[in-house]
Write a structure and sequence with these properties.
Chain A has 18 helices and nine strands. Chain A is mainly alpha-helical and 513 residues long. Chain A has a domain of 94 residues. In chain B, a hairpin with a 2-residue loop joins β46 and β47. The chains are: A mainly alpha (513), B mainly beta (1002). Chains A and B meet through α1, α2, α3, α5 and β4 of A and β24, β28, β29, β30 and β34 of B.
Chain lengths: 513, 1002
């Protein structure tokens, strides 16, 4: 009996051991939780084909629209600087205040490089994902047409990233495919050509609609791509191309300027008929909670504004301030509409009768704004009104600057001015598109406009927007005279590639080809 | 089955029956002093027949007969084997001064200390009892060489524990094995729950845990009863008070204003003038009516108490242990923050038949944390004292009457720290059950046995963070309340099966074990946030009472599985030549290369057992050890091994969003991290065994360390098994144990661990990988600080004018001189260098213990040297020039030529050249060396105390001062930082704790 028991136990024991021995690889061959493999996506469901496009919009919003990049984009011309000496002081060194020292160690610089290339990389891989849907579609069908147009939307986002790389770093790397291993830079001309060619390859297949007419409202259209291509062609000095692109937008796009310039940048102007490219956010109608946003994009440019009647206030980080000379220039021009919209001057009141907190900018004995203060440690508090959202437009109890506002990237006004400039440069008359912009701003008509008129108009109409003033100064050669006195030279036009990237990718130090 | 239950109940309820003594062999056991020894196990070799000696040392074995071999063994005594002849067998047992007979847990079994080929340090319950720590591991600081423990002051927070350096860029947490179950920490246990803690450091000991062993293994055995033991009821408890130690001295209002004044920047005068206007003072003469010491406003003395009741015992066939404990720790932050833990524990072991032993073991732990808002600590560093905590004149405007930074014109970056601390409500509640069931089958008595063991752990954690609505000015307000609730569930099991064969013949002793283990770890997390949840009662903290619109949700989880086969062979000849060979094959669901193989071999030689050593009088014991083995590390997240998508939402039109994804396209293909460890050491006893030395040299090379260098052009990294990390060092433990006369004994101990930590290689062609805080650079310590090295301070204008670097950067006297490493005449990113690391080179502990009659006294010291920390508190000045200064910054500032060559002027502390976030000046790197009186304990024990008719067997009263004094140079509360990279910010101060304790054995 005892022996039997022992044998039984032995059998049991060995049995248990054996049990664990069988099918061992099955036991540990389990899927990683909460992840979806690219190869497991069902590419035959055409309704899901927009998902990789949505992802690219998400990437542009979350990594492209970053406040630390904004400081550098808009802080390099003669009209605006990053604004604070007691925080992020190095950002000033990319503009007039800090004498164009361009310290590449400043964190925004590597961030600009990596964030833009992240967008490009993700656009590349999502284009490949989109192609896997395309393989299941028959050319000529409605779904296949959608597929072609979706390619254009992703390419437009990618071109936007390249545009900022080329205008900030100059020569940069064309990262055309995910498995590229060579990272030699291309000359800035080559990058311009690449952007234009890439957009041109997509434009014929994109939808000829305004973004606010799109099925996915606000999605980028043929005209968005053309406007972006026109921006790049303008940098190249290819005015014929600028004219072609902008003519198409003006003649066929159905765009129009939004009547109230002030509200154009606020909630009422979201996705209006003037909008060609916007980065969209939403708070879903709630003061807090679920929010698809843009980090601190508006907040960092925020002034301190108070509604004295209702005792409500909103305050941002006080970055980005205009040069007093620019405000003086606008006043001298007799600007009213654009003056009210563009400038939030400390001590003044907004249209809503909210006080703008802070010390009013100093004035000289003759009453004109003191300009010396602009380069002192105490930078005059003239904030960016285009980033301003009045408290009464905020959702519920929200007080964060611009929380529910979209970021305006390309407006029809810019298209009109590009069209005007191209025409004048090509020896034609640019009065019509030019005066359309001035009329909305309640400025008198000008006839036989010159390139200088147009550049001034761009300076006013597009101030603080995306560094357009800086690229205007550079492409026209004005930079030397306008910015030279602050220490700008041609070699300071572009910022060097951050050394952290040169260290890991030495090829970047080689001359561009 | 019924029978089993009944006998179990009887085993628990009935006291042990007295052993009848008649016939067979009898005798008496005495110690060297001639006193009788009770409780000695006398066993007839080759049978199950055992008996215990009684109070007079007498025993009787009815079944024994002449010719049998009897073995006498008893804890603390050297075992002895005697052949039965005629008449009584009386033996004299010798004291086991070297502890050679004690059983040491080695993982899936125990071994006698003398048969180990590795040095396994064991810390017994008594050593933990006197330390008022909130978790057991915290009490081990300074007790075990090679075990580095960094404590935290936060109530209920466990320490950071590493064994023999940092061997991974990922997790460096050791494996904790509690009665067979795997854990990442043992913070849920009470010190009083623990019988002993064994630390496995070298490969020959740890390799049996294969892929979990690379960071070392800590084996915890909870308190259990013994067979044939009378029920023992013990209570131990203490009450005490904690206070913040080494609170940093800040500049007061006048000193702060003086610093600002010296900068020549007038922009901040308005803040100062406003303070004078509202709270009194004199701006011109630098006098301020408000001089708030924010740290004083944030700290208080806090209460702490612990109570534990344990009952253990056993009968001939069963043993049991039950216990409960309660710990309460209030926080020294002056706001709601505390921790409490209630534990229940029970175990039962039952000899069901002569071939089957079964048992179970369970711990239930209930934890409650009210968490502190550590952001207040940094804000208190930044906020000058020029306004008071409360201001009645603005009480109608601001919540609870707090002074708003707006009142003085401060904008962003300034907060009322007291409001930050108090307007915060975060709670965690956790419920944890650890259980273990086992059965031992004796297949061949004394030789072959099979054990199956199933361990299961369930931990549920409910976290609630409530943000009240408040308004303390534009930058410190929360318009609507919000509530975040999350549920985290861990659900883990391990099933182990082992077959063990033991045999002895001639001088040969052999133990062979083979086994298999399967385990699963499952984690689920679900979280939701709602706005506008009513404020006031805990009972209202439900998402469903808040706004339905805008609720956000999060969901995550993982499931990992492991399957292992292992074996161990322990062989010795006359306990003189010892060999241990282990092998483990591990499969894991986590990695793409699923299987890893981990062999180890250890050998030892007890030199003093050699005949030729008998003449060598001055050495009592010498054992030489050598081992080599491979250990694995499978911590870190699972690798899909294929491209996956990241979800993104994008907005299209008003309040409409669609879901999409980005194809990540870059993915990792991972395998194990493997540590290759060689260990050489010896144990030595000399001077009549009064002096013991344990020495170990180790060389641990982590091969295939998982590193994640950035991809070119992007800030995306991809992980691979590309790195190599070296940890090389010496663990040295010295103990002196002596007795003077009959009543006085004393012990002196010291332990040292020397560590050389070095990143040996990263990915091919990659010399450095930058993290957010530190870098990994080949040839340097892990987690090194990287920045510009300050080599002096410009003293004179002539010196500035003569230096092109100073001219180019508009510098003035009082600014830093940086080392121009590449000598190119400019300071840029190329001049950055390694500035130090938080990894210390040396940690050491000393202890002294004295006992005289009933009185006992102990004191221990602990220190570390050779590490650095990053004073992030100071470095944060880059975010706002007008932050406050610590007192040393004021006192030591550069004030003119010759005043200092290492500290900047007040003005320099405002310039990005000196404080810029991208320069990372070595000024912010400070030594993390410290030395501390770790613990002082004094106690008195009453034995057999008569209270009326009752005799209380034992009562001990004690007083303890825990961490009463620490010295260090860093400008911080403590150089012990929870951040493994040594960033000193938002650090909760460490505490000194003074307690009064009672231990009673009923």
């Amino acid at each position: 009996m005892k022996l039997f028991k022992k044998t039984l136990v032995l059998a049991l024991a060995s049995g248990a051991m054996l049990f664990m021995g069988t099918g061992c690889n099955d036991y540990i061959d389990i899927d990683v939780e909460n992840t979806l493999a690219v190869d497991e996506i069902d590419y035959t469901i055409a309704d899901d084909m927009y998902k990789p496009v949505i992802g690219c919009y998400g990437r542009m919003r979350s990594t492209g629209i970053h406040w630390a990049l904004g400081m550098l984009w808009s802080g390099r011309d003669d009209d605006m600087c990053s604004g604070r000496t007691n925080d992020q002081a190095d950002a000033l060194k990319f503009g007039y205040h800090g004498g164009y020292q361009n310290p590449t160690v400043f964190w925004s610089v590597p961030l600009m490089w990596t964030n833009m290339y992240n967008i490009i990389f993700d656009c590349n891989s999502n284009l490949a994902t989109l192609d896997r849907f395309g393989e299941n579609l028959t050319p000529g069908t409605a779904d296949h047409n959608k597929y072609l147009s979706y390619i254009g939307e992703i390419k437009t986002i990618r071109a936007w990233a390249y545009y900022h790389l080329a205008t900030f770093f100059g020569p940069c790397v064309i990262y055309a495919s995910s498995d590229q291993t060579s990272f030699r830079r291309s000359t800035v001309e080559k990058v311009y050509d690449y952007i234009i060619a890439d957009l041109e390859s997509a434009i014929p297949f994109m939808e000829a609609k305004r973004p606010n007419q799109m099925e996915h409202m606000g999605a980028y259209t043929k005209y968005t791509a053309e406007a972006l291509a026109a921006r790049v062609a303008l940098l190249k000095g290819d005015y014929a191309k600028v004219k072609d692109f902008t003519d198409d937008i003006i003649n066929n796009g159905g765009f129009s300027l939004y009547s109230d310039y002030y509200q154009l940048f606020k909630i009422p102007g979201k996705l209006c008929d003037e909008s060609l490219m916007e980065v969209q956010v939403s708070d879903f109608g709630n003061a807090m909670g679920d929010y698809i946003g843009i980090d601190q994009w508006f907040n960092y440019q925020g002034a301190s504004v108070k509604d004295l009647v209702n005792n409500k206030s909103t305050a941002g980080w006080l970055f980005m301030r205009y040069h007093p000379a620019f405000l003086q220039w606008a006043d001298d021009r007799g600007e009213t509409v654009r003056r009210e919209t563009s400038f939030l001057v400390a001590g003044e009141y907004t249209r809503e009768q909210y006080i703008i907190n802070g010390t009013p900018p100093k004035r000289d004995a003759d009453g004109r704004l003191n300009v010396e203060a602009a380069t002192s440690a105490d930078i005059p508090q003239i904030y960016n009104g285009k980033a301003y959202l009045p408290i009464n437009q905020m959702t519920g109890t929200a007080t964060t600057w611009g929380r529910n506002n979209n970021v305006r990237v390309i407006r029809y006004a810019e298209v009109l001015l590009m069209n005007a400039e191209a025409k004048v440069r090509l020896g034609q008359n640019g009065d019509a598109p030019f005066n359309e912009v001035r009329q909305r701003a309640e400025m008198p008509r000008i006839t036989n406009v010159t390139v200088d008129d147009i550049l001034d108009e761009r300076r006013m109409e597009l101030c603080s927007e995306w560094g357009l003033r800086y690229t205007d100064l550079c492409r026209t050669g004005l930079a030397k005279s306008v910015l030279g006195k602050y220490g700008w030279t041609e070699s300071k036009r572009f910022v060097d590639i951050p050394s952290s990237h040169v260290l890991t990718t030495p090829e970047l130090a080689e001359d561009p080809i | 089955m019924k029978k089993l239950v009944m006998s179990l109940s009887f085993a628990l309820l009935l006291p042990m029956a007295a052993l009848a003594q008649s016939g067979g062999v009898k005798g008496r056991v005495l110690n060297e002093a001639g006193e009788p020894v009770s409780g000695v196990v006398v066993r007839v070799n080759g049978t199950n027949a055992t008996v215990l000696t009684d109070a007079n040392g007498n025993y009787q074995l009815p079944s024994a007969k002449a010719g049998d071999e009897l073995t006498y063994s008893c804890l603390g005594m050297k075992s002895q084997t005697v052949k039965v002849g005629q008449g009584n067998v009386d033996v004299t047992l010798k004291e086991d001064v070297l502890d050679l007979e004690s059983a040491v847990v080695v993982g899936y079994g125990t071994t006698k200390s003398k048969d180990l080929t590795a040095f396994i340090e064991t810390v017994k319950a008594e050593k933990l009892a006197n330390i008022p720590s909130n978790t057991p591991m915290a009490a081990l600081q300074g007790k075990v060489a090679g075990l580095n423990i960094v404590n935290s002051g936060v109530p209920g927070a466990g320490p950071t524990v590493t064994i023999r350096g940092l061997g991974s860029f990922g997790s460096t947490t050791p494996l904790y094995v509690v009665d067979g179950m795997f854990y990442d920490n043992i913070n849920f246990l009470n010190n009083a729950d623990i019988e002993e803690i064994a630390v496995l450091k070298d490969a020959s000991a740890a390799a049996i845990y294969g892929v979990r062993a690379a960071n070392g293994v800590v084996i915890i055995t909870t308190k259990k009863g013994k067979k044939n033991e009378k029920a023992k009821v013990t209570y131990e408890g203490y009450v005490g008070v904690q206070s913040a130690s080494n609170v940093l001295k800040m500049a007061n209002s006048s000193q702060y204003a003086q610093m600002l004044r010296e900068t020549g920047i007038t922009a901040y005068d308005e803040n100062l003038k406003k303070s004078v206007e509202l709270y009194g003072g004199d701006f011109e003469n630098n006098v301020y009516g408000s001089n708030t010491n924010w740290y004083d406003e944030l700290t208080r003395s806090a209460f702490m108490t612990n109570h534990a009741l344990n009952i253990t015992g056993g009968t001939e066939r069963a043993s049991y242990g039950v216990g409960m404990s309660y710990l309460y720790q209030n926080g020294i932050l002056k706001s709601d923050n505390e921790y409490s833990r209630m534990n229940f524990r029970g175990n039962l072991d039952y000899q069901a038949t002569n071939w089957l032993n079964v048992g179970m073991n369970a711990v239930f732990s209930r934890n409650f944390w009210q968490l502190p808002n550590n952001a207040a600590w940094q804000q208190a560093f930044n906020m000058p004292g020029i306004f008071p905590v409360y201001d009645a004149s603005t009480a109608d405007q601001y919540t609870d009457g707090y002074t708003s930074p707006n009142t003085l014109g401060f904008t962003s970056n300034f907060y009322n720290p007291v409001a930050t601390a108090k307007l915060y409500d975060a709670q965690n509640r956790s419920y944890q059950v650890m259980s273990n069931f086992y059965a031992d089958f004796q297949i061949l008595p004394e030789k072959l046995s099979f054990r199956t063991s199933y361990s299961y752990d369930y931990t549920g954690l409910r976290a609630t963070t409530f943000r009240p609505a408040y308004d303390i000015g534009t930058n410190q307000k929360n318009a609507t309340t919000s509530l975040t609730k999350s549920t985290t569930i861990f659900n883990n099991y391990i099933w182990d099966n082992t077959l063990t064969y033991k045999d002895s013949w001639g001088g040969h002793n052999l133990t062979a074990m083979v086994g298999s283990s399967m385990r699963q770890t499952r984690y689920d997390w679900l979280s939701g946030t709602a706005q506008n949840v009513p404020e006031g009662k805990d009972a209202w903290k439900y998402l469903s009472l808040g706004d339905k619109a805008g609720i956000t949700l999060g969901d995550n989880g993982y499931r990992y599985r492991g399957l292992s086969y292992f074996g161990r062979l322990q062989y010795n000849w006359k306990h003189r030549y010892l060999l241990t060979v282990t092998f483990r094959a591990d499969g894991s669901s986590k990695y793409n290369d699923k299987w890893g193989y981990f062999p180890s071999v250890g050998a030892a030689w007890v030199v003093t057992d050699e005949p030729f050593m008998e003449k060598v009088r001055f050495i009592d014991y010498l054992k030489l050890r050598a081992s080599w083995g491979k250990l694995g590390n499978d911590r870190g997240s699972a690798s899909a091994g294929t491209a996956t998508v990241t979800n993104y939402r994008s907005v299209f039109g008003t309040n409409t969003a669609f879901d999409g994804y980005v194809n990540n396209n870059t993915f990792s293909w991972l395998g194990w991290e493997i540590v290759n460890e060689t260990n050489l050491g010896f144990s030595l006893a000399t001077l009549q065994s009064r002096l013991k030395v344990d020495f170990d040299f180790y060389n641990r090379m982590t091969e295939d360390a998982i590193v994640a260098p950035l991809l070119p052009m992007r800030n995306v990294s991809v992980a691979g098994n590309w790195g190599k990390i070296l940890n090389r060092g010496v663990d040295l433990t010295i103990a002196w144990n002596d007795r003077v006369g009959k009543d006085f004994s004393y012990q002196i101990g010291a332990n040292f661990s020397f560590l050389h930590n070095e990143v040996r290689s990263l990915r091919d062609g990659v010399k450095m990988i930058k993290g957010g805080k530190t870098v990994q650079m080949v040839g340097e310590k892990m987690n090194s600080y990287y920045g510009l090295k300050v080599i002096g301070v410009y003293q004179t204008q002539e010196q500035v004018d003569a230096d092109p670097i100073a001219v180019a950067n508009n510098l003035v006297p009082g600014d830093f001189i940086y080392e121009d490493v590449n000598g190119d005449g400019k300071i840029d990113a190329m001049d950055k260098q390694i500035l130090g690391s938080y990894v210390p080179d040396l940690t050491y502990g000393f202890n002294v213990g004295l006992q005289w009659k009933g009185l006992d006294f102990s004191i221990s010291f602990y220190g570390q040297a050779g590490g650095e920390l990053w004073n992030r508190k100071r470095a944060l000045r880059y975010a706002s020039q007008s932050y406050n200064f610590d007192y040393a910054q004021y006192k030591d500032r550069w004030t003119g030529p010759g005043s200092t060559n290492s500290n900047p002027s007040a003005a320099a502390l405002m310039k990005s050249w000196n404080i810029g976030d991208s320069n990372n000046a070595s000024y912010f790197v400070e030594s993390s060396d410290y030395f501390r009186i770790q613990n002082i304990n004094i106690g008195y024990t009453f034995e057999n105390l008569r209270i009326g008719n009752y005799t209380l067997p034992r009562l001990r009263l004690s007083a303890t001062a825990d961490r009463p004094w620490t010295t260090f140079k860093a400008h911080s509360f403590t150089p012990e930082l929870s951040d493994p990279e040594g960033w000193d910010t938002q650090v909760y101060p460490l505490t000194s704790t003074y307690t009064f304790g009672v231990q009673i054995t009923f």
